[in-house]
Amino acid sequence: MFTFVRASERQVSLFARRNIYACSSRSFGMKVYTKTGDKGTSQLFNGERRPKDDAVFEALGAVDECNAFIGLAREYLDVSKQAEAKLGQELEEIMSRLFDVGSAVATPTDTSSNSKLKRAFFNPDNVTMLERSIDAMDEELPPLKNFILPSGGKCASHLHVARTLARRAERRVVVLVTVEQVENSVGIYMNRLSDYLFTAARFVAMKQQFEEKIYKKEKASA
Predict the structure, then answer these.
(1) Over the stretch 118-147, which tens digit does the pLDDT of each residue have?
(2) Of 20, 111, 124, 189, which has the highest C-beta tally within 10 A?
(3) What does the alpha-carbon distance between residue 54 and residue 43 come to, in Å, rounded to a whole number?
(4) pLDDT confidence of 11, banded at 50, 70, 90?
(5) Cα–Cα distance measured from residue 222 to residue 217, given in angstroms and rounded to the nearest whole number
(6) How many other C-beta atoms can be found within 10 angstroms of the C-beta atom of residue 137?
(7) What is the DSSP letter of 51?
(8) DSSP, residue by residue, 87-115
(9) Distance (Å, rounded) from C-alpha 86 to C-alpha 91?
(10) CA 53, CA 64: separation in Å to the nearest integer?
């Protein structure tokens, strides 16, 4: 858990700097360490400081962890093949959108200025992009008739792990959506992301010609 909090603190710093530096034509260097969080607090994009165990940093850490695992899964794609190259592009797009999720989470709606909320706004159209991709993959997949075990080769198995991490990140984000600190579109995106990752895992298993293992109910003893 300590590692995830450290990661989320660094992400907040990067999210804030990205928004600040985007307004300037100058090139700024970015140190990995700032020492500003050595006393157990960290700064949000709106300038507010909160304890590192705050719900915001729990959500940021969970989103960051999910993003890192998507990146790992992507490395097992064979991008010389058209279908896998396209999936790799989609995963890269999603990884960038998860940074946008982080920006929104790091900008609580109840304590941030309108200008900062506008910059951190999460576009609901991102949900539509996921749905279209899910539908496109689903058209090529055989009907789902059984529960699927995490399987189907290295890429598919890693995408299944990313799916579970997306669910956990969603649970952390929903806490903030419920108290109206994060816009609802962010929670919807995280919900749809796990559906996308499940479908993508099945899709890549099919394209890489790996067998998916199915759930088998335990045989009743005589």
Answers:
(1) 999 999 999 999 999 999 999 999 999 999
(2) 189
(3) 11
(4) low
(5) 15
(6) 21
(7) E
(8) HHHHHHHHHHHHHHHHHHHTS-TTTS-HH
(9) 9
(10) 15
77 close to 155: Cβ distance less than 8 angstroms: yes
Q: Which residues pair with 41 in a beta bridge?
A: 51
Burial group, residue 209, by CB count within 10 angstroms (0-12, 13-18, 19+)? exposed
Question: What whole-number distance in Å separates Cα of residue 134 and Cα of residue 157?
Answer: 18
Contacts of 34 (CB under 8 A, 6+ apart): 13
Which tokens hold the place of 42? 């960290």
Which alpha helices (H) appear in the chain, and where do they start and end?
Answer: 2-21, 55-74, 82-105, 114-119, 125-140, 154-178, 184-207
Decide if pLDDT at 159 tops 90.
Answer: yes
- pTM given for the model: 0.85
